[in-house]
Design a protein that fits this description.
This protein is α/β, with parallel strands linked by helices and about 550 residues long. Helices cover about 50% and strands about 10% of the residues. The structure holds 6-O-phosphono-beta-D-fructofuranose (F6P).
Length: about 550
């Protein structure tokens, strides 16, 4: 695998020249000139239909972008990913999330060893455990059936499973509530414990490292809550762990048969198809979890085999580079038009920004171009009454990815959601000119009402929000993220940038324990610490 500077390639130079010519080309005119544009630039895969026709593409653009994919050896990097090569070059690890959901007997090699067997064994254990809890066969310390599961985790140990359980609200098993605790201000945990019955509560501590301070702090509070209610002996019956650090989990008090393995060749933000999905299997049942895997695998097969010019993760990855580095955008809005998909933007935010929000290429050289966009979003309908004003009229263009589930709630509601999603996409593309406004508007308002348009968006349709299409959607974004990283010459699987803050937090906690700021600190941090220390001394301990 070669990680190089994309800006040195002939393809980048050709795209730079092409971009100059594109400045005067209007999306509206492209549609007027080509009635078949949608058919030509939309693809259906694994229950998803992805419409790229409202991206700023002329007939020449895609071939030039595909030249960049070839120049950056996307196919070679893709082959390395599936082959279990150490694509995570700074941690010298593979990134084999695709192996987690392959139902075939295909071998997946990590350092020469086939890990497919241990994946299937671990999944069997995890799903069997979930079935035992759901059926009541596995119960609490006093023999009572569990009715509440609390997943304690953060980042990839929270966002993926949380968004899955939220999306698959139509598939929840009865009489077992699954909630998620991530932040560490104890309010979230207290909220989750408010109505919990200790005899019937199961805690899932999800942490690849089993050292993340937020997670271990919450787990410690939860353990104390349980011990206060049922005694120390109950811990082993009410805690399970999903981790790569089984020794630490056993030291915490989790019994060996309740520890489900994670491996270092699965990145946290790529781990929802691993045992990190235990909370999903508990919430929706093993069969639904396996259906998620099937959908993700279908997208994996598409990514691995489809020609680049019909390969959705490749095309979406190329468009990110086209928008960020040639149209100079800086953000990406992900707007699901379905209440069930409302947490997707948060999951995709970590996936894309923690993977490619980097300033150094995998070869250690500084980048001279824009990398990951600032990914944000929220419920589409609510966003129209929040920030879409800026997306329509601000001088800063923000590409939008609309995600629309075509099934669901009552017909009228669905009509309203779909009509609004498509209207937003059309408005961004067409704009509203002064001429179109003038005939029925006060002259002094024309400038205020005009919308520039010519703003790019992608629309992803789910024919139905099912476990399969949810899994395919997650895999689509995982792979488009990997393609973007490859095009930028990045390592999409490490996250060194988060380590420094963690180290400083530990150092500040030492100051707080000592009751005073360390002498060498800047005056802002000293001032802030002192303000807190002053407040803390007044508040009841
Ligand atoms: O944000 C840093 C990070 O390591 C993420 O990559 C990860 O998903 C999260 O923290 C939680 O890590 P762990 O699963 O080890 O608790």
């Amino acid at each position: 695998m070669i990680f190089s500077d994309p800006t040195t390639t002939d393809a980048w130079a050709a795209l730079t020249r092409h971009r100059v010519g594109m400045a005067s080309i209007n999306l509206r005119s492209l549609f007027e000139q080509d009635p078949g544009r949608f058919d030509r630039l939309s693809w259906s895969v694994a229950g998803l239909t992805v419409d790229l026709s409202k991206q700023r593409l002329s007939d020449e653009t895609l071939p030039l972008l595909l030249d960049l994919a070839k120049a950056m050896d996307v196919e070679g990097h893709r082959a390395a990913l599936f082959a279990g090569e150490n694509v995570n070059v700074t941690e010298d690890r593979a990134a084999l999330h695709v192996a987690l959901r392959d139902p075939t007997d295909r071998a997946y090699l990590v350092d020469g060893d086939d890990v497919s067997v241990q994946i299937k064994y671990a999944r069997g254990r995890m799903l069997g455990f979930a079935e035992q809890v759901i059926s009541g066969q596995r119960s609490g310390h006093t023999g009572r059936r569990f009715d509440q599961v609390i997943n304690i985790g953060i980042g990839g140990s929270d966002l993926g499973p949380r968004s899955a359980v939220t999306a698959l609200a139509d598939h929840l098993v009865p009489d077992l509530t699954v909630s998620f605790v991530a932040t560490v201000d104890n309010v979230a945990l207290q909220d989750a414990l408010a109505d919990a019955n200790a005899e019937r509560t199961l805690f899932v501590v999800s942490s690849k490292s089993f050292t993340t301070r937020e997670t271990m702090t919450n787990a410690g509070h939860a353990k104390q809550w349980l011990v206060d209610a049922l005694g120390e002996a109950a811990v082993a019956d009410h805690f399970v762990a999903v981790t790569a650090a089984s020794d630490a989990a056993e030291a915490f008090g989790v019994s060996a048969d309740a520890i489900f393995p994670l491996w270092d060749w699965v990145g946290g933000r790529y781990s929802v198809c691993s045992a990190i999905g235990l909370s999903v299997a508990l919430a929706c049942g093993p069969t639904v979890f396996e259906r998620i895997l099937a959908g993700a695998h279908a997208m994996d097969q598409h990514f691995e085999t489809a020609p680049l010019d019909q390969n959705l993760p490749v095309l979406m990855g190329l468009l990110s580079v086209w928008n960020q580095d040639f149209w100079r955008t800086t953000a990406l809005a992900v707007l699901p038009y379905d209440h069930r998909l409302r947490l997707l933007p948060a999951h995709f935010q970590q996936l894309m920004m923690e993977s490619n929000g980097k300033g150094v290429r995998a070869d250690g050289e500084d980048v001279s171009f824009r990398t990951a966009p600032i990914v944000f979003g929220g419920s589409g309908a609510e966003s129209q009454h929040s920030f879409m004003q800026q997306i329509h009229q601000s001088p800063m263009v923000v590409p939008v990815e609309f995600v629309v589930a075509l099934d669901g709630q009552g017909e009228d509601d669905r009509d309203i959601l779909v009509a609004n999603a498509f209207a937003q996409s059309e408005a961004l593309m067409r704009g509203l000119s002064a001429e179109e406004i003038s005939q029925n508007s006060a002259k002094n308002l024309i400038a205020h009402k005009a919308c520039p348009g010519n703003r790019q968006s992608t629309t992803i349709l789910l024919e139905s929000l099912t476990p399969e299409t949810f899994g395919a959607l997650i895999a689509l974004y995982e792979h488009r993220t990997f393609v973007e990283g490859t095009l930028w010459g990045l390592n999409s699987f490490d996250q060194w940038g988060v380590e420094f803050g963690k180290a400083l937090a530990s150092s500040l906690l030492t100051d707080l324990a000592a009751g005073h700021a360390d002498a060498g600190r800047d005056s802002s941090t000293v001032g802030l610490l002192n303000a807190y220390l002053a407040t803390r001394s007044k508040s009841p301990l």
